[in-house]
Protein 1
Amino acid sequence: MTDREIITLIDTTLVNEFELNMADMAAEASLKDDLGLDSLDRVDMVIVLEKAFGFKMGEEEAIKAIRTLGDIHAFVINKKQLMQ
Amino acid sequence: MQARRVVISGMGSISPFGRGVETLVESLFAMKSAVVNVPALNDIGGLRPRVAALVPYINPKEIPRKHRRSMSPMSVFATLACQEALSRSNPPAEYFTNGRMGIIIGSTVGSPIMTEEFFRGYLATRSTEGMRATTFFQIMNHSCASNVAQTLDINGRILAPSSACSTSCQAIGYGFEMIAFGKQDMMLCGGADEFHPLSPAIFDIMSAASVAYNDAPHLTPRPFDLRRDGVVCSEGSGIVLLESLDSAKMRGAPILAEIVGYATRSDTSNIADPNSDSMEACIRQALEDAGISADRIDYVNAHATGTIQGDIAEAEALNRVFGDNVPVSSLKGHLGHTMAACGALETIASIAMIEKGAVVPTLNLETIDPLCANIRHVRSVERLSVQTLVKNNFALGGVNTSVVIRRYEHD
């Protein structure tokens, strides 16, 4: 998977799960303030992304530091690279 | 302490006939049946009933995702019914947040649909991985009450009675008492349930579900009829907005009727079998609470679900209290058994009967069972000026409930 494909899959997954607008899926978008995702949504976000990518990420320490959509992109891309 | 008078100032309905109180009332007076054959029940091993009354499709997306994410269908039903009740009554914004408006909405169980979904994954993998954070909020037994409170931002008391068929009748009764004793000024009271095969299965294993009319669903259930063969399960939500009379008058709210008496009693004779003595005691206690004698009752809206034992026991109890001259009907023939919603939906319909000056007969009552012939059955739409009525609900588990409702006479 290319980085672009990973980003597209993340964005599409989150748009579908949380009924977001694709136009709002900018890397700098804050999950809380711009996309309106609260702590409950963050739990479900991890679950749908784990399902989409087929690996666990919920127990990673780095996930707690995620604030923006770009943070998620970077986290997943990094995780994919480590697994290869 | 002087108890305050309590009135109904709003009503909301999501029923197998569709959305809205108007749809419910029109369908009942038109003698429609909402019961249909449900093919999805065909492939469930051991389950004999194939009929139910289901709420027509509602797009839940009219509720914002933030609130909808923790809702199963029953909470969607309850929320929409509450919105209708409030829209008709239109209380000022400050009532919602000053702690004086509360919610009492119950269901038979937490969402059976979501419970099944969770356990399907859990039992297959013996793992909780993949369980969503919002699952619990749909499975918990106070899901409807909490979801309504969150969605409508109501900050007063919150309670979720769970007593199956008596749930929403109890909700109305407890709301009545809380307002009468000055603890709240306004309360959204009622119940909701969503259909799941678990409901007919419970009645089926006790031989109390209707199975003889799977190919003619509109002919069942048949309360008080000689050829009745049991309950037909359905779904929906009924909500009434209770309010102190003083509050309603002060803000010029519509006053649809007055709650004047309530009783609920545990029937310890048997956890499953209906008992006419216990029913009678409950009805008499509600009348006593209202401070009126039985001869002041113009109409009884019976629980009568169409089971062999239950209908006979209720008819016996009604005969002992009211004799054979007070008009009685059941709405289960039209609606099936909406479970936790039935008390409130039937209360709404009964109030509509007061307004219309006419009572709805029991659908599918063709040949009165001789053992139920000791009361005065309503056989066709009857012109009747109802001043005061009794609404009964009796639940498995031995929970009996009666509410006394009176026409409100404006000053």
Note: The interface with chain B takes residues 18-19, 36, 40-41, 43-44, 47, 50-51 of chain A (CB under 8 Å).
Protein 2
Amino acid sequence: MVIVGAGGHGLATAYYLARNHGITDVAVVERGWLGGGNMARNTTIIRSNYLLDESAGIYEHALKLWEGLAEELDHDLLFSQRGVLNLAHTPQDVRDGMRRINANRLNGVDAEWLTPEQAREFCPILNISPDSRHPVLGGTLQRRGGIAKHDRVAWAYAGAADALGVDLIQDCEVTGFTTAGGRVTGVRTTRGDIGAGRVALAAAGHTSVLAALAGFRVPIQSHPLQALVSELLEPVHPCVVMSNAVHVYVSQAHKGELVMGAGIDSYNSYAQRGGFHVIEHQMAAALELFPIFARARVLRTWGGIVDVTPDASPVIGRTPVDGLYVNCGWGTGGFKATPSSGWVYAHTIATGEPHPLNAPFSLDRFTTGALIDEHGAAAVAH
Amino acid sequence: MTRLATGGRIDRSAPLTFTFDGAPYTGYQGDTLASALLAAGVRTVATSIRYGRPRGIFAAGVEEPNALVEVDGEPMATATTVELRDGLTARSLTGRGRLTAPDDQADQAGHDRMHAHCDVLVVGAGPAGLTAALEAGRTGARVIVVDERTEAGGTLLETRDLVGDAPALAWVAAATGLLAELPEVRVLTRTTALGRYDDGYVVAAERRGSRGRLWRIRAAEVVLATGAHERPLVFAGNDLPGVMLAGAARAYANRYAVLPGRRAVVFTTDDSAYAAAAELAEAGLEIAAVVDPRPGGGPDTAFEVLAGHVVAGATGTAEVTGVRVAGREIACDLVLVCGGWNPVAHLYGQAGGRLRYDDDLACFVPEGTAGRCRVVGAAAGEFSLAGCLGEEPRPGPPAAPVWLVPGDEPGYDTHFVDLQRDVTVADIEAALATGMTSVEHVKRYTTAGTAHDQGKTSAVTAVGVISALRGVPMGDLGTTTFRPPYTPVSFALLAGRDRGVLHDPVLTTAMHPWHVARGAVFEDVGQWKRPHHYPGPGEDMAAAVLRECRAAREGVAAMDVSTLGKIDVQGPDAGEFLNRVYTNAFAKLPVGSCRYGVMCRADGMVFDDGVTMRLAPDRFLMSTTTGNAAAVLDWLEEWLQTEWPDLRVRCTSVTDQWAGVAVVGPRSRDVVAALAPGLVLDNAGFPFMTWRETDVPGAGGAARVARISFSGELAYEVYVPWWYGLALWEAVLAAGEPYGITPYGTETMHVLRAEKGYPIIGQDTDGTVTPVDLGLGWAVSKTKDFIGRRSLSRSDTSRPDRRQLVGLLPIDGEESLPEGAQLVEDPDVPVPVPMIGHVTSSYRSAALGATFALALVKGGRDRIGTTVFAPLGDRVVAARVADPVLYDKEGAHRDG
């Protein structure tokens, strides 16, 4: 089997193919360096407090795997369950938060509602002044959520897969597919052809390019998404805070830098860079919630490519080409799902049938309309 | 003291006092904190982050890796770039800054954004930059020159180079003088180009005391004259205080009149350090020896040159006391190192430019132009001053770089590559031992190049070390990516004035002062402030809302509806356009009528709704939800501009052109009659869902009145130009005074509409709800095409058991169902509990005398009459499923 893309998902898939299914005759081909795409560019937030049953299922499976992953892979992943706080700034945010908390609890996912005062107790640098432009009206907390060190996760999966006999091939770009009778028989690469009974794409935004080579289309739009870090700071921010309305998500990494995600750039692009005004806007938003950050400095900004489907949920499953599988469309949420994405994708490739957790995430849901629309509409009340 | 008696660009008549780690010192105007500390003999300025080793000042500019300080509340600054000022207080750091509680004075200081366009932006005012600026300026082009230093001149400020027979600074003065005479040229010093973005867009930060300016510059051409950074050498003990870049020592002597030591050993692979040594010796520094690994050494010099040799190690514990060379130890308090120069190619890299490793120069150099960026001078690998001035270049001898100097003993534990991150060659060996080969992997594994200086002295050195250890050519390894900003920039500067209330514009209506005076409680809806309710004396919210609701149902009440989005849609194809945008038909709507419309996304899910009036055959006035007005206009424009450019339609937002008041309730006709005496108001003359132009004498005259209702009661909406909004509001209240007219807010509006089962888009919908799910199937045309139509026919979207909008009546009418409650069939099953829906809206109804809710429930319409449960952790609320229309199902109140 060939897995195209040695990001977190591709590497985890390779590892679980070997571990869960005993399939080790696997090559993971990567056009750059392993773990160098979105795996190296995300803001490392892990949580599973999703609203819809299908999402909660796959993300909660991931969180349970995260909780044992360092031990299993024998690698310190700096996985820290410091809690993820999602803030509410409008009455509709409060309604949505309550709805999600109630759904989480009934799905067996930990969730709490915090009042503004409780939110500040949990995150003492949070500005909860009722006079602020978008005052904090409360928030949902998932205590089991947190962060991990993205690079180490990639390297741990790579090392574990390698130890089980998987081949990892860097600087090897897929340029086409070989097929026979409508079934994939291998990949063409910049370093030669590789024959394979099954080929699994794990290439995020570039899935569109690969799918085009294989003769089908995937409903994803790729956008730049930027993130940034500050200089190293003494501990100041103890948890993860996310705010949709003010558009902030921020944590402080182990070394001490503040890690923040910016807003998505609205245009489509494969260039791993976005507009600077997005960063400026992001800083203004951050200072509303965290006035103490005013004199912190941006050390480094960068961009990744988020692959967004019409319902902002991933696609994991079969394609119109026999033997060719797809795992893409994770948008802004891919890192946290890495373990379960690999787990269910490996199952799908190994058995030819989706795992129950990824069955709803099929490509044909865009034909049937059985969407998994986690974001919902952006409308605000009258 | 090692301050020289003469020379330098400091003002000896302006002494400045400052403290560092609590001790008082004196320096001069023109000093940096670093030069003043060196002048005071301070050798150790910081402690390293991982190993706690002492560190001294290493460089003289932004590339400084060691001298991190906290300065007057700035959590982390580089002492080499902090301009000395009187009373400055600094403290050394151990790699990490400390954020302290915000100081409102300092942190709220307004940083400004500046916008500029130019033909040529020159980054760097050194010899190459000034030459380029003069060349462009003389053509009459609009030129902006930015430079991070306090004055133009670049490295010429730091050397005693000559131009012709005169000091180079005389040339600088002449050049800046010429530039000052050119009206279209602007020179910005203390201004650092942070990053380069698409289409010649460069962001630069200008330092102006506690306030700064963020420049957003759009340039037709960007000339990068950003110079080069000197490279250190990697040998044992190369981190000891006293080890310093040779060019930095030269800068301290020439620009700041400071000798950073007494007796130096120069360790260089490059001729530039010979000139540095000569100038330093002339200033009084003793040069013990020049160690040059090149077999033939460098240019002729008066110093002892140990050619073909290396410094095998620096000795000393707290600071350097000597070096080991060729088996002997040479005592010194300064080791001046130069391993060559790296062109500063950050912005070029950000423009997508490719760097080529040049073997003759032993550095990565830009190859050609990239994205409107042209590179000149040292940044382009042109290291001779003559070349930078546009004269015939004088190339030096081929470089012979030494990336890694073995010590006397095996091991690389004190061979530092990144001083700030405490990364040694041993760490790089460890990374390579894991099988990592990419420079990106080694960077991430070791953290080399990721510190405050972003690898300005370490990134290429790390590549060199990898090259040496692996035996792979530099060019095959390449560099890591150059990411903005070039130097760190504060959050506050980027936030500019978008702070506090200016973070997001606050929109208020013309009637706002009245609402404030009346003591309204406001809520944010989009950017608008809307009255949520108007509490009377001693009233809480619940009491106020019940009173307001009763007034609307039994008497008359008024609401400020000015915030509703309003889009003027004009053009011969406006009717056809609305036909495609709305699920229901608008093309044949008569002039003078209004129609409620629903619009969907392409996936068939409800996006917005509102009432649209036809003003003329080719003109409609669309209303949108308050919070969605901008998104709807974007949506219309997206379709017009990308899918249907053939339609002759223009859309204009007129939300804040028309102020509106809803007059609601059985007595509303009486109020409007008094307000607009000329209007025929009986049901036949002014039927439901029509509008009229009329005269409202109390509010400037011309007005539009529409008979529409979001409450189920007889109701009118009166619109006048925004300017007359407050007058209209007061006129309505005066006209309604005999009937006890009651102002009401959004909460009452929500209750009234919910009693009638009218959904609020965004509250009762979430992007997964079709018009049919909402019970609006009557508004979905079966004969025409519209956005989302095809999706509505998909198998899942047309499923009969989708979540549908229903009413919920708690079995105990005193108990309320919280909004956001999930609904289940059986509350007693174990987790995971299957959920069948959720509560979207919940209120207490004066009209019903009980609580009620709206909910989206799976197959809800078939469940009417059954009981569902809301498990809430500590309790379970049972409720009966009902038709969503709970009040006046027959519509008897609509016509009064």
Note: Residues 377-382 of chain A have pLDDT under 50 and may be disordered.
Protein 3
Amino acid sequence: MTSVSIDSARAQLLGSEFRRSYGWLTGAMQRLVGSRHDAEDLAASAFTELALVDDIAVVRQPRALLTTIGRRLTWEFWRRRDLERDYLAQLALTPGHWHASPEDVCMAVEELVRIDAALAGLSARAREAFILSQYEELGYAEIAARLGVSVSMVRKYIAQALLACCGNA
Amino acid sequence: MSTDATGLAWRQAVEWEARLRDGQAAADAGIDNDGLRDFARWYAASASHAQAWDALQERLARLGGRTGATLSGGGPDAAMAAALRAPSDERRSALRAAFGLLVVGVGAWGARAGYHQLGLDADWRGAVGQRGRATLADGTAMAYDADSRIYLQSGTGAAGTASLHLQRGQLLLTPGALGASAPLTVATAHGVVQADGAEFTVGRLHGRSVVAVRSGSAMVRPEGHAALRLQAGQACYFNRNGARASDLSFAAVSGWTRGVHVADRAPLAELLDVFDRYRPGMLRASDSAAARLVSGVFRLHDIDAALRQVAEALPVTVTRYGRYLTVLR
């Protein structure tokens, strides 16, 4: 019973906030990302995240929270766009013949975004060591020489990156 | 409790992956023999260990790259690497400043594109399991074996001399139709091969390199030893201990261009080095197995069959740990 009333209070709160702020947030997003369509997507995502906040009633300034969420989403949106663009540009530059279907590219970019986020917490060297080992298949000795660190340090970097990328059991 | 144990098994699996991933580093750290036994013991010690290892390998396969999820060419891996190097911090601060960010983005992008363009012009790399072809500036045709690494050395040798560094794998050079006369050198970790309008193959194998000449002649200069001349039809092995003539024909040494590897009393380690480049995952051998001599013709498109062939010919056992790590003892 109580949960229903709380849920309906939540829904009411979210509904009124949505009516009050959706247009405002979409406009703010559009100034950042340029496209109306993308801005609407981002604003909708921001409201979806707002709806996941447990104690919505105690959020005193929903617009401030929406702005914070919106900024992070915009950053992620840009990051994804960068990753996708660099990925496609490199594919196009690669001599030979790799023809990717849109589905392949979409899946690869999803994975890329996931790995990028997982590596975000690592040092620049650990990140580079992982890229060199995983995608350029360099040996540890060569990675160590390039980064100016010891081979055992490279091994530690790789272990750090693997833990980050492959998550916990 | 059980989650602690699972977490520990997971961290140990990651640690093993980091130790075994690099063959050379593993060998230097004495992993090849004792370490593999330690690994086998760890893997067998608990179901949670085996589960953690197999789960880790599955997740690694999804990352692409060396675990061979993408066998369809160097493209996707290079693209993953390039994209993951995309700088991000300027964007984050630009979000606060909200201005001038386009300039930063475009500038960084231009520099990266140029860098990669240069990198791609300068070296060749075959994907695991895929042979490749290229044409050098002087018209010489180059075929290279799966997972080979070849660098074009700039600023070395006399003008007009193409100088290649074969870091890994094998290559076959055929003079262009115009009969290019510029000398070509191919360096490996074991020495240098120089030829002038010859058709020849060079392979960087485990512990030694091989060269065979089909037409023309080539000079072989093992590191720290006197040079010797190879005529058409001759082949030899060389490393820092000098050169040793081989009875193998050019056709046998260049068998990789037709998808076969021919071994004549070659150490098993050498075979595994070749097989490794044809199949995702790791092939490792104990010291005693690695040193065993093996002869035969092995088909490279089916490495599992080739390994069965090895197991029939030699007293070695083949153990698989998940899809990824195979150990011969």
Note: Chain B touches chain A through 56 residues (CB under 8 Å).
Protein 4
Amino acid sequence: MRAFTYERARSPAEAAAAAARHPGAKFIAGGTNLLDLMKLEIETPAHLIDVNGLALDKIEATADGGLRIGALVRNTDLAADERVRRDYAVLSRALVAGASGQLRNMATTAGNLLQRTRCPYFYDTNQPCNKRTPGSGCGAIGGFSRQHAVVGVSEACIATHPSDMAVALRILDATVETIRPDGSTRTIAIAEFHRLPGDQPHLDTVLMPGELITAVTLPKPLGGAHFYHKVRDRASYAFALVSVAAIVQRDGTGRVALGGVAHKPWRVEAAEAELPRGAKAVAARLLEGAKPTHENAFKLKLVERTLGALLAEAKGVQP
Amino acid sequence: MPRPDSSDLTRREFLVIGSTAVAATMVSPLVKGQNPAAPDAPSFLTKVSFNVNGKPCALELDTRTTLLDALREHLHLTGSKKGCDHGQCGACTVIVGGRRINSCLTLAVMQQGNHITTIEGLGTPEKLHPMQAAFVKCDGYQCGYCTPGQICSAVAMLDEIKAGIPSHVTADLTARPQLTNPELRERMSGNICRCGAYSNIADAITETAGRIV
């Protein structure tokens, strides 16, 4: 690990301002992803700003019937919150499908959104990777690409976003609240928060340098039956090959988003109109224009079948 | 552990003495983080104080020191083990503020003011924690390397079930989770045992839960 200086921030504004003063600084909260990457010298911040002391660990009801989740709420606490379990079950399900008990106790809401990809070429500093070293090329294209993206890919990068939580937030239409080094705040729709790789795959999100996430807000509950089906190589504690988040209403309408298939949580609103026609029709619209590799084309069928199983279960649980 | 002849050096004490002798010759301005010629040079040392197993500790550490390395190398609590050092194996599991975490994936300086319990703080050879006694009784290990992490994880995991925290295999998110075999296996998936003592570990946890849940 490279040497770095360290400070404990006392307010969100102070943290953001500190980041502007120290080029190459990073915020640290749970640290479960950042420290892993620092040990491998994939991330090499010269300065760490510890934000754990900021009072951003509450889940509060909003005036319009939603929830405002502080950036530092741990994954365990978010999954266990009574209101989340009751009204946003897809979020609880997605959270407990990810990582291990120990990691969920450390990982935060904001940090989960900011996870870097688990692409093995990103992790191997001997390999080219446009995300780690812009312009160095992509080892995954033409390489071992079984776990990589099938939609929204570019000539520069076929990495996936590893978060389960973000897929649930995408169908819940969450918004991300931030503060910038100049003290100004903004709200970013989750649909706009994560980027597609394009020719700048080193940029995962639209956050500006020094911009700090302060909260994630959920609109009022949607009702319906909530599902998160995750398909992976082990029964527990593994990243998704494919995951499907869905909220299905009694009349058969609903919302669907996918994990493990793109550089961001993948939702195509137009595909949801096909829900009454079944999984095949929905999957076809969701994966329109897909560019799988020879090793991950199975994901197209896997999405359709996972969604099919989910919709069958939805019919079973609907009264 | 009692030694038959206390005048003999243990292997660990021998290694510690040897490494101290080497370290004494290697103290450099970089290690100290202070360059007298440049008073504005950044310091890579940070002070931190926390409580470990009921005892207050104050340390000044290289910022890169993980909690695991602080416990093992600075406080000489070598029960917590370094397996993968990347949060994948769970051998480093300790309990901070009542919650189990991977001590390899947090910096010691981030633990300011926290209460940390390691395997040394759960029980002693003379007075084992019920979970430790159950691991012995049920043969919940083979080589023993993952065992401190397994035991710390299992103790905190039972508290998570008591607190109503759901898991991936909890069927009804709005009901209280129960300690079934599938539940404890899912909840312990962050602790790997290369000897494959899983079924006996599950027995030990079930036995302990029957007595303390």
Note: Chain B is about 35% helix and 15% strand.
